[in-house]
């Protein structure tokens, strides 16, 4: 069952360096993720967020540095052993076959034990639970190739949740989701972290980071320029440096930070 006890895990990049050709994409990146944390990675388009995720997942090899899971090199784990621990929601995905949404999510259940295993009633039940939790039960019988972009995104999130891994790496999971699904997903991520899961997500919306993250890491010019609690990291000057826009940060009646664009016209980044 996906509600089984969650193992305590620590995933970390140590002094990771990565180049594409002569271009340095990531330089001396150290990032540690612990159980119960929601870490939001912020960075402008092309900053290297997906690249760092792919390195943390073992899909790309760093030129220098290493990735360790519970102090063991990632390379020491088989693909199946990694699937037991880390689930991934990629940025964009078009399935080549018109699998039903239920079956796409079922693949998450089989990631751990091999896709040639015959699904058991417990697997189908777990899929049903995840679809219900994400409020997409109505999509179960629809072909994945014939649903909307946001519905595909929810299906991929459901597949990752069904995997039952204790670490979730989510590349811009809110993309394409309507406002209600965005808020419900953030609430669900907070619940998952509360039950001991570790969540790393990238987002282009600093509001989401402030609302859900326990830590924010900021990637700029290939390096981590800041890493810490949201209230310390998110400042108007950081938002301006990252995105070239002016914002005010306010505290609402519940004591939570709110980010509001001032609509002041500022120079483009680097101008
Ligand atoms: N397959 C590739 N070949 C060459 N360069 C690439 C490749 N994939 C990404 N890059 C480059 O590496 C840099 C980092 O890309 P990456 O996708 O990691 O950024 P990102 O922060 O995830 O961006 P976004 O927010 O736009 O999704 C970019 O300059 C990008 O153009």
Automatic annotation (TrEMBL):
Return the PROSITE patterns for the record.
Answer: ABC_TRANSPORTER_2
Which UniProt keywords are given for this protein, alphabetically ordered? Answer: ATP-binding, Nucleotide-binding, Translocase, Transport
* Pfam entry (one): ABC_tran
What does the UniProt function comment say about this protein? Involved in beta-(1-->2)glucan export. Transmembrane domains (TMD) form a pore in the inner membrane and the ATP-binding domain (NBD) is responsible for energy generation.
- The answer to whether UniProt assigns keyword Translocase to this entry is yes
Residue ranges of domain ABC transporter in the record: 11-246
Q: Which domain of life is it from?
A: Bacteria
Q: Which family does it belong to?
A: Belongs to the ABC transporter superfamily.
Organism of derivation: Nitrobacter hamburgensis (strain DSM 10229 / NCIMB 13809 / X14)
This protein is called: ABC transporter related protein
An MF annotation (GO) of this entry: ATP hydrolysis activity
Q: Which SUPFAM superfamilies match?
A: P-loop containing nucleoside triphosphate hydrolases
């Amino acid at each position: 069952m996906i509600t089984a006890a969650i193992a305590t895990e620590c995933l970390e990049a140590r002094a990771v360096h990565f180049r594409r050709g002569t271009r340095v994409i990531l330089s001396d990146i150290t990032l540690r993720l612990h159980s119960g944390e929601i870490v939001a990675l912020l960075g402008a388009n092309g900053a290297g967020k997906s690249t760092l995720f792919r390195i943390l997942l073992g899909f790309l090899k760093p030129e220098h540095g290493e990735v360790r899971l519970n102090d063991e090199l990632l390379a020491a784990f088989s693909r199946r052993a990694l699937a037991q621990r880390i689930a991934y929601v990629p940025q964009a995905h078009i399935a080549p076959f018109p699998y039903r949404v239920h079956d796409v999510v079922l693949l998450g259940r089989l990631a751990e034990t091999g896709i040639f295993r015959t699904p058991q009633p417990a697997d189908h039940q777990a899929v049903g639970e995840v679809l219900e939790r994400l409020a997409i039960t109505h999509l179960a019988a629809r072909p994945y190739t014939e649903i909307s972009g946001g519905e595909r995104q929810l299906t991929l999130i459901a597949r990752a949740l069904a995997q039952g891994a204790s670490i979730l790496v989510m590349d811009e999971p809110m993309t394409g989701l309507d406002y209600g699904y965005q808020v419900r997903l953030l609430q669900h991520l907070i619940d998952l972290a509360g039950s001991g899961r570790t969540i790393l997500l990238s987002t282009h919306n600093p509001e989401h980071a402030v609302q859900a993250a326990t830590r924010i890491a900021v990637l700029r010019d290939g390096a981590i320029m800041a890493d810490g609690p949201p209230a310390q990291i998110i400042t108007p000057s950081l938002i301006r440096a990252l995105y070239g826009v002016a914002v005010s940060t306010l505290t609402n009646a519940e004591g939570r930070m709110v980010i509001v664009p001032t609509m002041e016209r500022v120079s483009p980044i680097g101008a």
